[in-house]
Design brief:
With 70 residues, the protein is an all-alpha fold. It has 1 helix and no strands.
Length: 70
């Protein structure tokens, strides 16, 4: 008697990609730079050092009080 060959078919699962519904991509073309390139510097700047020091002290005091709470 002849023996029968048993063959198995291998099925492959094919995953289908779902289409995402969302924003369509639109490329913006910017021919002009957003910066005009002109910078104006005011030489008459007066720096109030006392005000800056007071702001620094207030900031550090607030930071210390936050650390004390933690």
């Amino acid at each position: 008697m002849a023996e029968k060959k048993v063959t198995k078919k291998v099925t492959k699962k094919v995953t289908t990609k779902t289409k995402k519904t969302g924003k369509s991509k639109v490329k913006k073309i910017n021919d002009e730079p957003s910066d005009g390139g002109i910078v104006i510097v005011d030489d008459d700047i007066v720096i109030d050092q006392d005000k800056i020091n007071e702001e620094r002290r207030a900031y550090l005091e607030e930071a210390r009080s936050q650390e004390a709470v933690d």
